[in-house]
Amino acid sequence: MNASNPYPGDYSAFRESVREFLAAGLTPELARAGERTTSVFSDFEAGRQWQSILHAKGWGAPEWPLEHGGTGWDIQQRYIFLEECRLANAPNPVMMGVQMLGPMLMHFGTETQKSAYLPGIISGDDVWCQGYSEPGSGSDLASLKTTADRDGDEYVVNGTKIWTSMAHYANWIFCLVRTDKSVKPQAGISFLLIDMATPGITVTPFSSLDGEIEQCQVFFEDARVPVSNLLGEENQGWTVAKYLLEFERGGQHFTIDLKKQLRKLRRLIGSEANAAAEDPTFVYRIAETEIDVMALEQTELRIKGTVAAGEHPGALSSLVKVSGTELGQQCAELLIEAAGQGAMPWQSEVLSPEYEGPTAAPEECVTTMAEYINSRSTTIYGGTAEIQRGIIAKHVLGL
Amino acid sequence: MTEDQTLLHDASDRYLRDSYDFNARRERIALGVYTDPQHWRAFAEMGWLALPVPENFDGLGLGTRECAILAELCGQYLITEPLIDVLAAVSTLIAPSPHAERWLGQVVGGELITVAAIDEGAGQRSKSPSTKLTQVDSGWRLTGTKQWINAGPSATHFIVLATVEEGLAWVICPRDAAGVDCEDFPTHDGRGGTNCAFNTAIEENQILLSGAPAQSALDAYRELAMILSSAETLGAAHAALDTTVEYTKQRVQFGQPLSSFQALQHRMANMLIQIELTRSLVYAACDAADGDTPDQSRFARAAKVKASSVGRKVSQEAIQLHGGIATTDEYIVGHFFKRITALDSWVCSRGEALKEFMALSG
Predict the structure, then answer these.
(1) Which residues on A lie below 8 Å from B278 (Cβ)?
(2) In CATH, what number is assigned to the domain containing residue A26?
(3) What ipTM does the predicted assembly reach?
(4) pLDDT digits (tens, 9 = 90+) for B55-86
(5) Among the four residues A362, B57, B87, B98, which has the most C-beta atoms within 10 Å?
(6) Helix, strand, or coil here: A291?
(7) Same domain? A81 vs A189
């Protein structure tokens, strides 16, 4: 392995070192933020604080290459790290920079771009959001209409992006924009890195079904962006984006969170006089779900083996995305059923890591509803379940 | 798969692709011939029957994973010979017996075909069989009735689960012995079945196991049967999907191939997703069994539950996506459907496996 990989091959010692770090670095407040996470995003400030703690330890971007501040861990160690963080209830830092833009920058960026942006991503000082979807362009992303017209050394950007998660906290956005309208849709798209402080950009947050604000619409009105902020070549944005979409799909570990949901479920029905626990059909459904989670876990391990052997998992990633998100929804459904009417109180303040006041039902019950509501979006973002099935039909079955 | 496992798979696959013809199978079944002696001899010659036999008995000493490779192929090629039945019996009922030497050679050589006889009717499975093995002046006597012995007509010998004074016993008994009264019947999966009444004399060396070892052998047999039936279901389900994909590419309606319709594409994608998830779990169950890990019993049951559910759904979908042709006996896909259905209740049903899984999960 290499110098910064302290335990090559010795996974139990590695796991122990991660646990020690978590025991020392994860404050009760941060762990509470992790525990009260009911979507892919934790409390923003907690996530940001955690990212800077990780960065100080040298673990800000475990998957990155060493030269850019990565860890040099192998795939198993990265998995152990993720698993221990989740089990200890570490909050999730906003991931668009480290997990999505970072790999793109390293792959397509100039040296100047890499040194300009990578350090801010890994430290968490810069918060990036993703400007892909538009009101008229969801699954059919290539139809996007936001334009960037060249004017000297600048692009003039006009249009709007939606589902820009965390844009209200972000100081940067990476965007797909149309730079050529005369060619077929995919061929006229470019990838731009845009400072959110640029005049002409406004952000309108809107609340999700659970009342929380994570999503935004971003408007561009004659926003001027230096040409040097182009990632990759002009009109090559689709290639850059495809790489990114694959990255978003691949390497996901749904099982860690699914097992966490199942443990919560067991706790809920294990508490006294739980009506669901008395229902044999409910108990059977839990067992069947557990078996489905085992099957997914083994599939994730298969993919890990493929990746470790240097092969591309291909459409298996789509399979895991469909199955992982649908199982997450199934677990969330079981959780609200186990909580019963205890899931009904709508107390948004309970989701804040600072809140220590009373709850109208046990906290574990109250948080199940937000988790259930938010689980519906998991089969929509990052390539809908239908898009994923289309990929499987085309690339695996040859239909 | 390891290199050796790939070799085993490829060689076995080649033999079955070249020699196991679906139409010949249909004609033979219609005549009541469920085991083709030539095929069985070939299975023996290729070493399939020796796969799980320990090396000190001249076997290959291979594990569950290798047996599952063959089981998957059995599903894919709709083998009517009782291969998984014999593999499970050899590995868990004969090999551990003090009389193993007396029987193994002939089983591995293909002269004897040994199939376990457990069921005694609905809801009377394994716990306390009413079939009895009793000591008499001249030796031992086996009395009672076994029902629905899958592949019974192919067997030369039954390995009968009986109650004996110290608990359970496994008794090997030729089906043509005096006092063994068999009634064969055809079955929907093309293997045939047997109801059999026993009132027959038993020699000491026919009592393979009794007491506690017989109980552990029953547990081991059931667990291996769960895994192998899951693997066979997996092979059949995947073959049903492949058949469906090929058919929908060729069948033209409304001026275009069926495969161009998204509603059908997504259903086939679902079939693949579920098959691959099942594959992961079945292989994991094999590895858990071969690694003798503490969770092997849980994994075997999880694999059985998953394979049964997925097999049922996939084989039903395969028929629906084909349309009318799949409902005819000449067409292959309905036979995957029927074999998968038979496997669901073989030795341990999906429901039993689920209940046992829950008990093991605490």
Answers:
(1) 295
(2) 1.10.540
(3) 0.94
(4) 988 899 999 999 999 999 999 999 999 999 99
(5) B87
(6) helix
(7) no
